[in-house]
Amino acid sequence: MSNATTEFDPKAFRRALGNFATGITVITATTPDGKRAGVTANSFNSVSLEPPLILWSIGKNSGSCEIFEKASHFAVNVLAADQIDVSNHFARPSDDKFADVDFQDGLGGAALLPDCAATFQCEAYETLDGGDHWILVGKVVAFEDAGRAPLVYHQGSYSVVMPHSRFPAKKDNEPAAIERLKSRFQDNLYYLMVQAVRAYQADYAPLQLSTGLRTSEARMLMVLQETPQLCRKDLLKEVNMPEAEVDNAAEILQRKGLVSLEDDCYRITQQGEDQAEALWDLSRQEQDKMFADFSDEEVATFKKVLKQLAGR
Ligand SMILES: Cc1cc2nc3c(=O)[nH]c(=O)nc-3n(C[C@H](O)[C@H](O)[C@H](O)COP(=O)(O)O)c2cc1C
User: Fold this and answer.
1) Which of 35, 47, 68, 189 is deepest in the core (most CB within 10 A)?
2) Predicted TM-score (pTM) of this structure
3) Which residue puts its alpha carbon closest to atom 28 of ligand 1?
4) 58 near 90, Cβ under 8 Å?
5) Measured distance CA(59)–CA(217) in Å, rounded
6) Atom of ligand 1 at shortest distance to CA of 245?
7) Ligand 1: distance of its center to the CA of 70 in Å?
8) What is d(CA 45, CA 297) in angstroms, rounded to the nearest whole number?
9) Nearest atom (ligand 1) to Cα of 58
């Protein structure tokens, strides 16, 4: 472990924090005179069951601070996997974030967004000083649990939850009942697909990291290779990342000399082309290795099935 130090690079610190995967929420509030706030936040966390308390933190320079300060209640809308647009919308400063948004008024007028994974309506309970953020503690007075698959945030990219493998590798002395249970799972195609993706990922991730690029940076470079010049707003549509993170990743690619920025448009450099080709080579090598035991015909059928399922 490296030595504790009080002087460190804030960007590196933020990047390291990004290893802690979180959900994403939009936290809303309304003042008694009707001013609304809605802020995308991944700092939400549970605190206490008795009394039921939760917390989140808001940057002290956020334009929404005053509204949360004056509001009697706030609502935590836990976003579902298909609500990336909602996350991006409420992460962007705007005079009226609610202009074209569907919502209902909850307690204290805090907006409740439709189709979320869960909603927690809270009374403002306590505000604590947390450096450059205010920590807002809320007492939950009502909640709804829709149980939809959540939107996840990890290393600056939007992600989805995949169940972890249920069983460790087979041991010789396993009881027959476990074997039987396993065999039922072995017939379940969803279970098998998840297992296969996990195995593939575990094998491929170290290879990709050895290039010095994170998945989000590698993906961005490969997108730029497909479309040699992409304006920032088009790049935002192509990668599943919040705006600020796209800018961070693009800055890293620029610093490495892989991408250049002119007139708000990104262009891949020759060095970037070479790096992107190296990434494609790695992914081909991995594919050849993982599918080495199958004929071309079997791989073609597998591809056809996957494409059809993905396009449903
Ligand atoms: C994934 C994600 C998580 C965020 N988490 C927080 C957070 O926990 N606290 C916060 O103050 N801002 C957070 N932000 C940034 C705010 O959403 C953004 O600064 C704010 O909505 C801008 O609008 P405002 O002018 O109302 O502050 C996050 C943004 C994203 C994309």
Assistant:
1) 68
2) 0.87
3) 41
4) no
5) 26
6) 31
7) 19
8) 49
9) 11
- The reply to whether ligand 1 has any atom less than 6 angstroms from the CB of 117 is no
| CA-closest residue to ligand 1 atom 26 | 64
Reading the block at residue 242, the tokens are 């919040």
Query: Does ligand 1 come within 6 angstroms of the Cβ of 65?
Result: no
Query: Which domains, ranges and CATH numbers included, belong to the chain?
Result: 10-154 (2.30.110.10)
Residue 262 forms beta bridges with which residues?
265
Q: Per residue of the chain (312 residues), give pLDDT as tens.
A: 454 555 788 888 988 999 999 999 999 999 999 999 999 999 999 999 999 999 999 999 999 999 999 999 999 999 999 999 999 999 999 989 999 999 999 999 999 999 999 999 999 999 999 999 999 999 999 999 999 999 999 988 999 998 776 555 556 666 666 666 667 778 889 888 988 898 898 889 888 888 888 888 898 899 999 887 888 888 888 888 898 888 888 999 999 999 999 888 899 999 999 999 999 999 999 999 999 999 999 999 999 999 999 887
> What distance in Å separates the CA atoms of residue 102 and residue 286, rounded to the nearest whole number?
44
Angle at 164 between CA 162 and CA 168, to 5 degrees: 155
Is the shortest distance between the CB of 40 and ligand 1 below 6 Å?
Answer: yes
